[in-house]
Specification:
Keywords: Membrane, Transmembrane, Transmembrane helix. By secondary structure, the protein is mainly α. It is 81% helix and 0% strand. It starts with 6 loop residues before the first helix and ends with a helix.
């Protein structure tokens, strides 16, 4: 591993990996109904980065991502299982990018379901491009959207609102139920801490101090950036221009297109194209990661294109569910965290689990949490579904872990007595 990154470079990479279409469009969507508290996703991501800074030094010293640590502690088969489980949260991120792409397609005039089909085809095509070329183009489009976002805030006289973001954020948090707020914050924070995609940057730091400072800087930057989309939406709401907004997922691309259009008529459409490219780029990046995980866990699907198509189908199925962007990501994050949470906690606490016990623990969490998620999808559970999914998964994992240990201990006692 090349350890060459400075703290500034680490911070920049962590921020760019976090600031995507889900972050931008999802925060704007939440702002329509939750005011400045719509920044909760960005704020929780920033807090997760600060928490990552706490564990950055031992992570850097180990030279292993959390999933490699799983493999070392529980065996190579468990590492493969965790790689398969990572498909869960990645599917949620992919679905968020699909949501964003469809929202832009609608603004460009593509009717349903053709907009969805077009987005899926373009994401698949983008995933086949050279990663170096694609990443530069898509990152540039996202950076352009950030510049226009700041311009929109200034034009809407929203700077005063932005400077008051923190107290307004705290004030508007009561628009979420305590359970909803706690579950969402926990799911986002924990995924940042356990995310192998973030760990690659941490472990590439020149020194452990660079890794720590880089994570802390990224956390503070994301908290500041996280208030921008919501401040723009709240500022524009006061003018009355968002009264007839049909779809909350469209609010940010619509506002950015409107602001760019005020400078020049053709720039409005150009802004939408740039945003669609950003969505395609984010979707393509996560699709490549999912395809790699599928190929690793299912050797029979060895061809990258077939694995990519399979991953895209999974993301499309999640996107077809009528959920908000942030809600989509959080719901599947919870299934993943409920599956690996107990084993990860045991790893941090230096509690030894056998490979069989670790596998049974993770599978139990997946079945219980996934079952609750499926029930909510089918409409059998309409309230506090995310909290129920998290509690059910962790309880099942803990029950199996403790029960497995009790049975193993009882067997060892019987064998000892019989040998006497």
């Amino acid at each position: 591993m090349d350890r060459v990154l400075s703290s500034v470079q680490i911070a920049a990479l962590l921020v760019s990996a976090s600031y995507g279409i889900g972050f931008l469009f999802g925060s704007g969507e939440l702002a329509l109904t939750h005011g400045m508290a719509g920044s909760i996703y960005g704020f929780a991501t920033g807090l997760g980065m600060l928490a990552l800074a706490v564990v950055a030094k031992p992570l850097w010293q180990s030279g292993l991502s959390v999933w490699d640590l799983f493999g070392r502690a529980y065996g190579s088969q468990q590492r493969g299982l965790v790689a398969a489980l990572s498909l869960v949260w990645m599917a949620g991120v992919l679905a968020a990018q699909i949501h964003g792409g469809v929202a832009v397609a609608r603004l460009l005039g593509a009717p349903d379901p053709y907009g969805l089909i077009i987005v899926l085809v373009l994401i698949y095509a983008a995933a086949q491009m050279s990663l170096r070329i694609a990443s530069g183009v898509f990152a540039g489009c996202l950076l352009l959207s950030g510049v226009v976002l700041v311009y929109t805030l200034v034009a809407a006289d929203g700077l005063a609102l932005y400077w008051q973001a923190v107290p307004r954020f705290v004030e508007d948090l009561d628009t979420f139920s305590p359970t909803q707020m706690g579950t969402m914050s926990l799911a986002v924070c924990l995924l940042v801490v356990t995310g192998a995609d973030y760990h690659q940057f941490v472990m590439s730091g020149r020194t452990a101090q660079c890794a720590v400072v880089g994570c802390a800087t990224a956390g503070l930057a994301l908290i500041l950036i996280g208030f921008l989309p919501t401040a723009v939406v709240v500022a524009m709401q006061t003018t009355g221009v968002l009264v007839d907004m049909p779809d909350g997922k469209q609010v940010i691309p619509w506002l950015l297109s409107r602001s760019a259009g005020h400078l020049s008529g053709s720039l409005g459409a150009a802004m939408l194209v740039a945003l669609s490219l950003a969505a395609l780029g984010s979707g393509a990046a996560i699709l490549r990661a999912m395809a790699s995980a599928i190929s690793t866990t299912l050797p029979g699907i060895g061809r990258r294109r077939l694995a990519s198509a399979s991953a895209l189908v999974i993301g499309a199925m999640l996107a077809a569910r009528d959920q908000g962007i942030v809600e989509t990501m959080v719901s599947v994050n919870i299934v993943y965290l409920a599956s690996v949470g107990v084993c990860f906690s045991a790893l941090l606490a230096d509690i030894n689990l056998t490979p069989q016990r670790a596998r049974a623990t993770m599978v139990a969490g997946l079945i219980a949490s996934g079952g609750v998620y499926a029930a909510s999808w089918l409409g059998l559970l309409s309230t506090q579904a995310d909290a129920s999914s998290l509690v059910a998964g962790l309880a099942a994992s803990m029950g199996v872990a403790v029960g497995f240990g009790f049975v193993a201990g009882h067997r060892r006692t019987r064998m000892t007595r019989s040998s006497r």
